[in-house]
Amino acid sequence: MHVTGATTNPDGTFVTQQARNLGFDRDDAKAPVRYLVRDRDQKFSRSFDEVFKTEGAKVILTPVRSPKANAFAERWVRTVRAELLDWTLVLGRRHLDRVLDTYVEHYNSHRPHRGLDLASPNAPLLHPSAARTEDVHRRDVLSGLVHEYHAAAA
To answer: Which are the contacts of 69, defined by CB distance < 8 A and separation ≥ 6?
Structure first.
């Protein structure tokens, strides 16, 4: 999952710039973006699509009046609201950006995903060396709202 900056009134220029920023952030990524699935909102202009096409991604538009086509994006929005935003008093745009960045790092590196056999997308390969509860350490993220568990170093 990748999250770019937030704004109260996104327009075509803003989302195109965010697409460029995402491209710069992903320059060191292991796997290139192959597809971009987006809805038909007017703020996604030709220049927005062109940013992804120059990176080699195929832009796919969702069908008209088909809410299930955005099921993965809608599920992620529901997850981030239930696990983070419903429990956080956001003090401003910069605070929201920082909180979302921290949560996305947790989501991609530590949070178990059912579709990945309870692994996380960017997790390093772990060895089942910590069989006892004394060998597991907890780290609080976002002031204790989210917990990450790690095997203790031997």
So the answer is: 37, 39, 62, 63
**Using CA atoms, how far apart are residues 109 and 148, in angstroms rounded to an integer?**
10
146 closest CA partner among 115, 116, 117, 103:
103
Query: Once rounded to an integer, what is the mean pLDDT over residues 32-50?
Result: 89
pLDDT score at 66: 81
Mean pLDDT of 63-76: 83
Compute the distance between CA of residue 151 and CA of residue 134 in angstroms, rounded to an integer. 9
Q: How far is it, in rounded angstroms, from Cα 23 to Cα 63?
A: 26
DSSP code, position 60: E
Q: Could you tell me which residue, 6 or 27, shows the higher pLDDT?
A: 6
Of 101, 105, 107, the C-alpha closest to 83 is 107
Pair of tokens at residue 15: 């989302």
- 3-state SS, residue 54: helix
Q: Residue 130's pLDDT is what?
A: 45
- Cα angle 134, 117, 144; round to 5: 50
Q: Is the pLDDT of residue 62 over 80?
A: yes
